[in-house]
Write a structure and sequence with these properties.
By secondary structure, the chain is an alpha+beta fold. The protein is built from 8 helices and 20 strands. Strands 6-7-12-10-11 form a 5-stranded antiparallel sheet. β10 (142-149) and β11 form a beta hairpin. α4 (200-208) crosses α5 (216-230). The structure holds uridine-diphosphate-2(N-acetylglucosaminyl) butyric acid. Uridine-diphosphate-2(N-acetylglucosaminyl) butyric acid (EPU) binds at residues 133-134, 199, 231, 241-242, 245-246, 265, 277, 279-280, 283, 288, 301-303, 338.
Length: 342
């Protein structure tokens, strides 16, 4: 029997992952309407296939062709849906481009998302790893999201506590959330907005620009300028942003490291642990600007691995391993990749 859904076969995923890696999908479905997911469960060809959910492809490392059915989330829509207390609720479909959505909220006169400007990827992928930058994480402005359970077909609205947000982590990265697809996300944006300039580099940029009391749009412009200066644009150089999470170690381990490496960059966490700057650790091992085949370490930020043109996922993976080995040997710290490996 044949599928009644517009499933495509042998589709290149190169343009659908920001690393620009050459992997193919054996079967591929562009999901622009949640009803297609109901269709999937009843489809004779597709019902029993394993699935792989793809958003903007900005947090995956495709090391090989994908055997599972690729569900490419393209659900559109963005609208102001109501108010709650002092906040305006704004919802977007999972397939919306993240930065375009941030820009939309700013154009509506709403602040709250500006520190997360220019992060690559989609709205639906943003809560999966609780994206964060310049002193803000998505959980800080999150209201709720709608999930679709691929196993049961049930739709559920989840609040922040249900999503179990952590540093670059959520329910959706764990086995309990494996069957859940994000359909849309709602944000609570404060009417009484104040700029969040807690991140030192952002505060310095505001001061240098003479902005004592910046607007949300002005903060967004500052964040965009910082990112453009430090991070490669995936349109020019393939990459997936930070390739490793900043490792969290015990206070005792941090103290011991500081004795040997007084310059160690570390930030105390509320629970007493210490977050180290992975970029600094990698930089100290001499990897900044180094290449392994066509994969490399970005010369302006050691935390970002890049595709210098024609790299395979296996090459990026080999580079990542070599970096992990060196950092472990020198500092005794294990680096954990941020992207999902396929
Ligand atoms: N550092 C170095 N060498 C480097 C890179 C960094 O010594 O090559 C040092 C810096 O001097 C600084 C420290 O490491 O003292 C931290 O660097 P930075 O402030 O640039 O931020 P980061 O920790 O490298 C994190 C996020 C970024 C986010 C920025 C800004 C993670 C894994 N990364 O980077 O997120 O934009 O903070 O908030 O948490 C992403 O996840 O894709 C991403 C870009």
């Amino acid at each position: 029997m044949h599928s009644t859904l517009p499933i495509e076969h042998d589709v290149s995923l190169q343009a659908f992952n920001t690393f620009g890696l050459p992997a193919r999908a054996r079967r591929y479905l562009r999901v622009s309407d949640p009803a297609q997911l109901d269709g999937l469960r009843q489809d004779p060809e597709a019902a029993s296939l394993p699935r792989f959910v793809l958003g903007g492809g900005s947090n995956v490392l495709l090391t090989r062709d994908v055997e599972a059915l690729v569900l490419h989330m393209a659900i559109p829509g963005r609208e102001i849906v109501g108010e709650e207390g002092d906040a305006v609720l704004v919802r977007a479909g999972a397939g919306e481009n993240w930065h375009a959505f941030v820009d939309f909220t700013l154009s509506q006169g709403l602040g709250g998302l500006e520190n997360l400007s220019l992060i690559p990827g989609t709205v639906g992928a943003a809560p999966i790893q609780n994206i964060g930058a310049y002193g803000l994480e998505i959980k800080d402005v999150f209201h709720s999201l709608t999930t679709y359970d691929l196993a049961s077909g049930a739709r559920r609205v989840l609040a922040a506590a249900d999503c179990r947000f952590g540093y670059r982590d959520s329910l959706f990265k764990h086995p309990e959330g494996a069957d859940l697809v994000v359909l849309d996300v709602t944000f609570a944006l404060p009417r009484a907005w104040r700029p969040n300039l807690r991140y030192a580099e952002l505060a310095q940029a505001a001061e240098a620009a003479g902005l004592a009391d910046p607007t949300p749009r002005q903060v967004s412009d500052l964040v965009v300028a910082i990112r453009r200066r430090k991070l490669p644009d995936p349109a020019d150089i393939g990459n997936a942003g930070s390739f490793f999470k900043n490792p969290v170690v015990s206070a005792a381990q941090c103290t011991a490291l500081l004795e040997r490496f007084p310059q160690l960059v570390h930030h105390a966490q509320p629970d007493g642990s210490e977050k180290l700057a992975a970029g600094w650790l990698i930089d100290q091992c001499g990897w900044k600007g180094k290449n392994l085949g066509a994969a490399g370490v970005y010369p302006r930020q050691a935390l970002v691995l890049v595709n210098n043109g024609g790299a395979t996922g296996a090459e990026v993976q080999a580079l990542a391993r070599a970096i992990q080995d060196d950092v472990l040997a020198r500092f005794g710290v294990a680096l954990e990749p941020e992207p999902v490996f396929v």
